[in-house]
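User: I'm putting together notes for a lab meeting next week and I want to include a structural view of one of the chains we've been expressing. I don't have a solved structure, so I'd like a prediction I can at least talk through. The sequence is below, exactly as it appears in our construct file.
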Amino acid sequence: MQTEVQKNQEQKEKQKKSMGAEILDWVKTLAVALAIALVLRTFVFTLIRVDGTSMLETLQNNDILFATRFDRFFDSFDRGDIVICNYPNVKGYRVKRVIGLPGDTIEVRGGVTYLNGEAQEESYVVYPPRTDYGPYTVQEGEYFVMGDNRFVSKDSRSTDVGAIAKREMAGKVRLILFPFANMGSPYQD
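Assistant: Thanks for the context. Below is the predicted structure for the 189-residue chain, given as structure tokens.
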């Protein structure tokens, strides 16, 4: 026959075990949630903050962008896409617009961008470049990117940046999330 003390002790032991099991369940749940978040952030999407004025007037300094990352696995970057990419020997992402695909020849003369010899109508360029560039033919496995604010943008025209290798393309911008007044697609109709 059990005494009241023994019953209380057994009850406390059961509570400890159930509490320990509950904590273990929480830890497992959090670990799974973190693993899922890591996979999503690595392979599906990311959020990025615009740092600087190289994409004015399309994007503003401190805009928060939603970008998909799976595009880099499917060669789905097209001319005009706003992308996030890595520059050689520079930490962090840059936000730029794809201007040239492999095989394209890019040239800038008198503030006008020429693609394969044809002047481009780029309504998103409010601040044209003041210096000429090129011609440059984009190599296989590369993309030529430029900021919309061509006057200040450090982009593929710069000798220390150059065309961006496909492996350095990190994703395609889909939405401006913040500030809410700017929320929506960054692409003009």
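A couple of points you could mention at the meeting. The longest strand covers residues 169-178. Residues 30 and 36 are 10 Å apart (CA to CA).

User: Perfect, that's what I needed.
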